[in-house]
Amino acid sequence: MVLGKVIGTLVASRKEPTLEGLKLLVVRACDVDGNETGGIAVAVDAVGAGIGEVVLYAAGSSARQTQVTQNRPVDATIMAIVDEIAVGGESRYVKDR
What we know:
The model has no long low-confidence stretch (mean pLDDT 94). It contains no helices and 7 strands. It has strands at 2-10, 24-30, 36-45, 54-59, 76-81, 84-87, 90-94. The chain is 0% helix and 48% strand. The chain is mainly beta. It is elongated. Strands 1-2-3-5-4 form a 5-stranded mixed beta barrel. Strands 6-7 form a two-stranded antiparallel ribbon.
C-alpha cells in the first residue's frame, strides 16, 4: 500500500462496461506529513474519499482484491482514508475534522 493525497477527479464518458458506476480519483503519492512527493495514479475509490484527503491505495493485482474492484480491470484502488499518522510516537499527520 502507498500513502497518497487525492488531488482531483477523472470523468470518462466511455469506458469498459465493468467500470460503470465506479468513482475515479487522481492520487499523488505523499509522505507521512501529507506532503505530495511522488507520481500520480488514477485509482478507483472503494471507500468514499474526497479531494484533499490522505489515503492508502494499492496498485497492481492487489487493487483487484476489494469487493468493489474484484474481477475488474483496475490497477489502483483507494482502500482507506487516513485519520492520523504517528511515527515514533510523534503525530506527523492528523486529518482536519
